[in-house]
Structure formats: C-alpha cells, structure tokens
C-alpha cells in the first residue's frame, strides 16, 4: 500500500502539469530567462493560409546542388519563422523545389518577398559630402564598386564599398532609450570589426552609407572611431520595417535563386468546418472506446478509462509543448493512437483474467498479467514507432507534410500510451484493490 501511495504522487503531479499546460488561455512560461508561449498550433488545413511551391530559377539542364537546396530550405524556414509564422512548414520537394505552408498568413506576398530577397548589405564610403546631398541620397539607388567592373563610359558615380553584410555576426532590433526610435543593432566578426575600426578611424567626419540591394537606407556621419565591433543602423524605422531588415540581414542571402511556380490560398471557413468535424469524431471515438472498456472489463475497464483520460491530457500537453502543428491527418494520428493506448490494456486485462481463472489471487493475477503481457506490448509499440519513423522520413524527404503530421502525432501517442498503460493503469488498479474486497467480488473483473 505504501509503495502504491508513493507511485501515485508523481503521477498526480504529471496530471496537474498536463492540465495546466492544456489550459485554453495559457499565460505562457515566463521564468528567469525562459520566455515561452504555450498555445495550440493548427495547420494550414485547419486555420487557412497560403501554400507556395518555389523552384530553383536555373535552366532545366543545370544540376542543382543538393546541399545548396538544404541550405536554402534552412534559410527560408528561419526567415518565415522570424516573421512570426511559427507553424510554417518548409520542405524540400524533389530535386529543385521547396514547399512552403504559411498557416494563418494574411499577407503572403509580403512573406514570400522576404523569403526570396538576397539582402546584399554594403557599408559604402561617401566621403565629405554636403548634408543636403546625403538627404537626397536617402532612399535612392546608387552604383557601388562591389562585384562590378568599372565602366569608363558610364557617367554615373561609382561609390566604394568598405565591407558587406558578410562581416555581420549578429543582428537584432533595438530601441533608442532617449528618442524611442527603432534601430537595427549589429555585431561584427573579428575581421569585420578590424576593417570597420580602421575605416572609421581614418574617416571621422565623413559619411558612411548603409546600402541594401543598392538602395541607400541611411547615411550617418562618423563622429568618432568605432573600434568595438558593435554598431547600429538607423533610418526612421517602424517596428515592422526594422524587424524585416533584421530578418534579411540575420539569415543572409540564398545560395540559389528561387521563383514561385505555384500558390494556393486556403480559406479559414473550410478549416473551421473540418476542425469541428474532427473534434466531434474524436470525442465520439473516445466515448465509444471508454464505454466498451467499462462494459467488457468491468472495474479494470473503468480504471483504464481514467488512464485513457490521463493519456489524452498528457498527449495534448506534449503537442502544445513541442510544439506539434495539428493538421487533419495529425488529428487522425491522435485518434488512432487512442486505439493503440487501449490495445495495451486489452492485452494486460486478458492475461489478468486468464490468471484469475487459473486460481491466482487478485494481486498475483495483476502482477503476472502485466509481466507476461509486457513483451507483446513492447514489440507491438516498437513496431509502430519504427513505422512512424519511416513515415516521418518519407514525408520529410518528399515534402509530404500530411504524412509527417500523421506519423509525429502517432509516435507521441504511442510513447505516452506506454506510460499510461504500464504505470498509470497499474497504479490506479492497485489503489482500487487497497480500498475494496475484490476477492469477494470476482464479477468486478469480468470472471
């Protein structure tokens, strides 16, 4: 009895944490350096959004380096997630295409333009020019000598590039403590810091333009040598424009040019309807399973139903913590995992009934039932996990997000079901035996 009481305490703690995480309006976790938002992430088919297919903008007979595609995928994923689209799905589809799904995105053109931009940042020497001329250059496109061969015929002034964005180590949005203006702060690499220190030391009083894709953002005057390798870009930024610039600079340029070959917009109306029907189906499925377990297995079945509720709470908490983006196939995987969770209990209870028919006491039958059913439970769940891993690999390799969502939710469900079947159900059943005279009422066990 004391052992069972010791087991129930950590189980109750886990249940309490799961309920806390599952709260609809969860405040998030804000402790120390942890700043984590807790919410349910819904996929494109449930909340609507945009799906786009990008293709390498290269001749058809030109081979695309697989490593360049993988690098492009990582950069694009970082960019769209930095835009606040944390549920975005970015996958390689085939040899030269990348699939992007942006659930809940209201301005897809803006997001895709950020994805495709190369963001060539240049620090350009302007020299000692009048303030009025600096103001006139703001927002204008200029010609720099970076990557260009000098054209003696051209009458356009060519400005010298001191260094490029490759020298930037870190970048982020900041606020001026005095004026409240938004700034894009940056930290340079060791080599970039040395170049910048030498240049600013020799050009105090001159103007240095910050140029993005040949367009002048701002042209501050160098008031003093900057030797620490840390600086900031100002230019009448809003919070949104400063964040966009920081995203472009933080994740650099794409290794290969990309073009959009297909887009599809999914409306939220269909998503809401699908979600409602999925929830109804899930509730019905769970209710039918629980009724069957209670009627067929009596007391163990009722206890298994309680463990099944615990299973649902813990699984959903994991979905919110990881987080798992729930799609219709993902919900299907969750509903299927309910059956997997019950399957372990069915094996255990059938073994328990056999031991009772062979004359074992209730406690002996419970322990032997669990011990002898465990190999079958282990092997069947291991097979399901292996299958889920193969499906996840297939979905990731071929851009099949539907398959990935199904396999991930199924795998999480299987792992949680092992815990609830082997630990929670067994503990609950022993506690029930401590409080009733089960030996006098074998009918409670369906024998």
Report on the structure:
The chain is α+β, with helices and mostly antiparallel strands and 447 residues long. The protein is built from 11 helices and 16 strands. It has helices at 2-21, 44-47, 66-82, 108-116, 131-137, 190-202, 239-250, 268-321, 328-357, 362-397, 401-435; strands spanning 29-31, 34-36, 41-42, 49-56, 89-93, 97-103, 121-127, 143-144, 158-164, 168-175, 182-188, 207-212, 215-218, 230-237, 258-266, 325-326. A 5-stranded mixed β-sheet has the order 8-9-7-12-13. Strands 5-6-4-15 form a 4-stranded antiparallel β-sheet. Strands 10-11-14 form a 3-stranded antiparallel β-sheet. Helix 9 (328-357) packs parallel to helix 11 (401-435). The longest helix is centred in the middle third of the chain and has 54 residues, at 268-321. It is elongated, with a radius of gyration of 30 Å. The model has no long low-confidence stretch (mean pLDDT 81).
Strand order of the largest sheet: 8-9-7-12-13
SSE class: alpha+beta
The major β-sheet equals:
5 strands, mixed
Total number of beta strands? 16
Order of helices and strands: HEEEHEHEEHEHEEEEHEEEHEHEHHH
The assembly state of the depicted protein chains is single chain
Number of helices: 11
Name the overall outline: elongated
Helix content: 40-55%
How far apart are the termini?
A: 25 Å
The portion of residues forming beta strands comes to: 15-25%
pLDDT average, as an integer? 81
Q: Which blocks of ≥5 consecutive residues have pLDDT under 50?
A: none
**How large is the radius of gyration?**
30 Å
